[in-house]
Write a structure and sequence with these properties.
This protein has helices at 13-21, 46-55, 81-88, 105-110, 114-145, 152-170, 182-191, 211-219, 231-239, 242-251, 259-269, 294-301, 303-307, 317-323, 326-331, and strands at 2-6, 37-42, 59-61, 64-69, 93-100, 199-205, 226-229, 272-277, 282-289, 309-316, 336-338, 348-354. By secondary structure, the protein is α/β, with parallel strands linked by helices. The chain folds into three domains: 2-53 and 60-112 and 198-268, 3-Layer(aba) Sandwich (Rossmann fold), CATH 3.40.50; 122-196, DNA polymerase, domain 1 (Orthogonal Bundle), CATH 1.10.150.300; 291-354, Beta-grasp domain (Ubiquitin-like (UB roll)), CATH 3.10.20.30. Helix 8 (211-219) links the parallel strand 6 (199-205) and strand 7. The longest helix has 32 residues, at 114-145. Bound molecules: guanosine-5'-diphosphate and magnesium ion.
Length: 356
């Protein structure tokens, strides 16, 4: 799962990257516009922490997401901008970062309130997608003119869809609901348009300023989930030794690093859910998409488990927690036997039975 940090220069993307990952972005080599830094981050989950405390396993493995720190999006047409967006389009979800601290460059360069700049980002996505659409239309029209008969039907259908997309984007509207069939939906998905990706907003607030006030103001201007954090403070927390964090958080009146909510939000935005496997050897979170079956879940662990699938023994986390132990949960009939088609739920604890 890749989550891209995008924004105008100086918004605080790199600061947020450090706050999320505890890592420093790597310095650019080559074209700075297409340079990226990546960091793998554990997804905090109090349920998994509870399971760790119960089982005291030798190994503890939370789910992870990968954050990608991108270069600032230039406001004007610039060499490399299309390549920057090509990389952004590879992400599963995006976090738009804007500043709310004094002297921030994105405020100076782009202007407007943090909420207005989040909208400005969405406009940039739209322009970049429009460019793709226009280029595609040109290509298909060329093909048709050349009389390439083999692909004629498909080309004509795609051209029709692309022209409708162009009309929408030129009006500044989103592509929501534009696909009229499963075919068109699949085609649209294959373009991985930036503006169709799940998007969260993060406002990087100057230390000491009320977070909720800033968050609510920005959230009122856009139709995406918005988080507010003290970026610099959070980056400091993330890079200090674990044992010093508690006292530091307390000093700032924080119960936990605010980036934890951002990580969870990004994870959820990709429609990812965890299910858990437990035991003395390992307590582990595995990641599937909402709606996926027990068979798919089994395959995440090992293809043999999917191939030889017999059944899943499933306990909902809340049931296990209420019972206090797996033995007690079983005695209360909270452990269910489920087949291949069972839709795995967020927080299910699963033992797979299989034979190969
Ligand atoms: N005062 C203040 N400065 C910040 C904060 N976050 C970032 N900065 C500074 O703003 C500048 C741009 O931040 P950076 O994270 O590099 O932005 P990027 O261009 O979006 O990656 C840097 O000089 C940071 O030190 C903040 O919360 N408060
Ligand atoms: Mg940066």
């Amino acid at each position: 799962m890749q989550i891209g940090l995008v924004g105008f220069a100086g918004a605080g993307r790199s600061t947020l990257f450090t706050a999320l990952s505890g890592l420093q972005p790597t310095p650019p080599s080559g074209n700075p516009l297409t340079h990226t830094s990546t960091g793998v981050v554990k997804v905090p989950d109090v349920r998994l922490e509870w399971l760790r405390d119960l089982f005291q396993p030798k190994k503890y493995t939370p789910a992870t997401v990968e954050f990608v720190d991108f270069a600032g999006i230039p406001r004007t047409a610039e060499k490399g901008k299309a390549e920057l967006f090509a990389k952004i389009r590879e992400c599963d979800a995006l976090i738009g970062v804007v500043s709310a601290f004094d002297g921030a460059a994105d405020e100076g360069d782009v202007g407007g309130s943090p909420g207005a700049r989040l909208k400005g980002l969405q406009e940039e996505f739209l322009f970049a997608d429009l460019e793709i659409v226009e280029r595609r239309i040109e290509r298909i029209e060329e093909n048709l003119k050349k009389g390439k008969t083999k692909t004629k039907d498909r080309d004509e259908r795609e051209l029709d869809l692309m022209k409708r997309c162009r009309d929408r984007l030129e009006e500044g509207a989103t592509l929501e609901g534009i696909a009229k069939s499963a075919d068109e939906e699949a085609l649209l998905t294959s373009y991985r348009f930036a503006q169709q990706k799940p998007l969260l907003g993060v406002v990087n607030v100057g230390e000491g300023t009320d977070l909720e006030e800033v968050r609510a103001a920005a959230a009122g201007e856009v139709r995406i989930p918005v988080f507010a954090i003290w970026g610099q403070v959070e980056a400091e927390i993330a890079t200090m030794p674990e044992e010093e964090r508690g006292a530091f958080l307390e000093e700032y009146g924080l119960t936990e690093p605010a980036v934890r909510a951002v990580i969870r939000g990004a994870f959820e935005a990709t429609r990812s859910i965890p299910f858990f496997t437990v035991g003395e050897d390992e307590v582990r979170a595995w990641v599937i998409r909402r709606g996926e079956s027990a068979l798919i879940a089994a395959g995440k662990i090992h293809s043999d488990i999917a191939r030889g699938f017999i059944r899943g023994e499933v306990t909902a986390f809340e049931d296990l927690k209420a019972a206090g132990s797996e033995r007690e949960a079983k005695a209360q009939n909270k452990m269910r036997l489920e087949g291949k088609e069972y839709v795995v739920q967020d927080g299910d604890i699963v033992h797979f039975r299989f034979s190969v």
